[in-house]
Amino acid sequence: MKVEEYSLQKYAPLSVLIKDYLSEKMELAPFILGYQNMETLGLAIQQRSNFSLAQRELLVHQLLRQNDFKGNEKVIKNILELKDTNAFTVTTGHQLCLATGPLFSIYKIASTIASARLFNRYFPEKKFIPIFWMASEDHDVDEINHLFFTGNKIKWATEQNGAVGRFSCEGIQDVLMEVEGGENAFFKLCTECYASSNSLAEAHRKLVYEIFGTEELVVLDGDEPEWKKAFSSIMEEEIKNQPSESLVKKTSAELEEIGYKPQVFPRKINLFELGPNMRERIKTPEEGGRNSEEYVSLLKSSPASFSPNVILRPVYQEFILPNVAYIGGPGELSYWMQLKGVFDHYHVPFPAILLRDSAIILQSSSLKKMDKLSLNSLQLFQPKNAIVDGWMQELGVQDLAIIKEKLGILFDEMIEKATAVDATLKQAAAAECSKALSGIEHLEKKMLKSQKQKEDVRIQQLDKLYNDLFPNGEWQERVENIGRFWKELGQEGIQEIIESFNPLEKSLKIISLASNPEKTAE
Q: Which of 106, 277, 98, 101 is nearest to 174 (CA)?
């Protein structure tokens, strides 16, 4: 494996907000704990020193119960570390997408593990445990029931409703075994996890451990009654007083005032009611819901019947974890910045927020195409048409540009002489010259089209290469599944990716498979 690094801000498709955050623009300081550096992590550790022993005991107890499966000795060791007041978590989270979904879900976990390793080296007197928070309470089935493999959509059709983590895995194995005639090793691994599990959450936990190992990572399911019981005072205030809505709107307005668009929009009450086969938004009486007393009564008798939405889920996460850093994608970091006021209101420490690593994987087939086309990895960031135009120039089409430049000089002289003879001829001379140049440009387009037809094979190869890296015009990491690369990558390759990742470097990685291990910098 060969890893090349390029500027994340220069080449990755980031929003202005995220670029400004990475550039440490001062206007963003009120919305974060600090910027993406070790100084911010030091602040996060300091504010997390008051995470109580009682909170740690509850956390450890529930994590041990959730991770009670055969062969989990290393996971148990990691969990027990959290009893120590010098132990902290580094967290990421994602939906329970079919077979892990798009590549960036893998990169989020890899970045989290890499960050924990880095922090352990930098603060040797502390201990940092990487956590993967499963979004098991999500109810958006259409977002998790499919994956893309070589550009094709693979879909699991299910009629189940409610929190997806509680879903049965029925039918998933049949769908995955159709990929590559059931011979893909990664999907075989996925099938084993789904077939041996009673719920989607259980299967996803097993799969994440299979991919990343149990050396460091701990997988957490937030759909836990005891944690919700501990969190119930915040949920009760949300039901009674609805503070989050006004706080998020205020912060969003402040961000908009300095030029940034909001990512999320709060509800009156930012909670769901959760039950068998249902997860429904809690509404105020004005919105057609029940009165607050009824909801509070249910909350006290059954905290597990409530589920935070996108506004309160990060608060819930930070409430139950001694967390110092959240690793997220560009969209996640954007909406976390809208939540600073909510965290402050509920007296829950706001963590360091770190942008995950981003990468493009080049398979051996892609590397062969690049070799045939004489392209290097840096050129891949150019628009495809720019590469084709460059080829045309190399083949001599640029000569017309020189000719047009020379003709322009001659036409200027012609117009000048015609004007000297008779000033009224200036317009006519200019029109004739313009007509001639238009003819030249028309001829140039015909020549370019003809040359492209002759270069059709090379252009088709380029199309295939770009479709590998930017399927349907999207970045590879946002579409393709890790299963496409598993044959050349495998678990060893995953560990190499973790070793190459470091969110503090703010770099975009180009990962070439089937190559000698090497790491270079731009």
A: 98
Strands (E), 85-126: 87-94
* pLDDT 10s digits, 13-68: 999 999 999 999 999 999 999 999 999 999 999 999 999 999 999 999 999 999 98
- What b/e string do you get for 483-500 counting C-beta neighbours within 10 Å, with b at 16 or more? bbbbbebeeebbebbbbb
What is the rounded CA–CA span in Å between residue 196 and residue 160? Answer: 19
Q: Are 283 and 310 in contact (CB under 8 A)?
A: no
Cα Rg, the chain, nearest whole Å: 28
The arithmetic mean of pLDDT across residues 166-195, rounded, is: 94
Output the pTM of the full model. Answer: 0.88
Distance CA 165, CA 255 (A): 34
Q: Give Cα separations from 229 to 244, 269, 283, 406 (angstroms).
A: 20, 18, 21, 80
| pLDDT score of 161 more than 90 | yes
Q: What's the CA gap between 342 and 350, in Å, rounded?
A: 10
CB atoms under 10 Å from CB of 26, counted, come to 9
Single-letter amino acid, residue 488: E
Bridge-based pairing of strands 2-7 and 518-521 is parallel
The secondary structure element, H or E, covering residue 440 is helix 426-454
C-alpha–C-alpha distance, residues 66 and 54, integer Å = 19
Distances (CA, A) of 397 to 248, 404, 436, 457: 56, 12, 18, 18
The answer to whether 242 and 281 have CB atoms below 8 angstroms apart is no
Q: Answer whether 185's CB lies under 8 Å from 487's CB.
A: yes
Give the residue carrying structure tokens 């099938």.
191
Residue tagged 């041990």 (tokens): 64
Q: What is the pLDDT of residues 110-130, one digit of tens each?
A: 999 999 999 999 999 999 999
Give the amino acid at 19: K
Q: If you write DSSP's letter for every residue of 353-382 in order, what string do you get?
A: EEEPPEEEEE-HHHHHHHHHTT--GGGGGS
CB 325 within 8 A of CB 91: yes
CA pair distance 251, 339, nearest whole angstrom: 7
Q: pLDDT tens across 229-273, in order? A: 999 999 999 999 999 999 999 999 999 999 999 999 999 999 999
3-state SS of 25-91 is CHHHHHHCCCCCCHHHHHHHHHHHHHCCHHHHHHHHHHHHHHCCCCCCHHHHHHHHHCCCCCEEEEE
Q: How far apart are CA 76 and CA 68, in angstroms?
A: 8
Tokens, residue 425: 């001829």
Sign of CA dihedral 132, 138, 140, 146: positive
| Closest of 95, 176, 200 to residue 142, by C-alpha | 95
CA angle 261, 140, 304 (to 5 degrees): 105
Distance from C-alpha of 153 to C-alpha of 157, rounded to nearest angstrom: 12
Buried b (16+ CB within 10 A) or exposed e, 39-58: ebbebbbeebeebeeebbeb
Match 């205030």 to its residue by tokens. 237
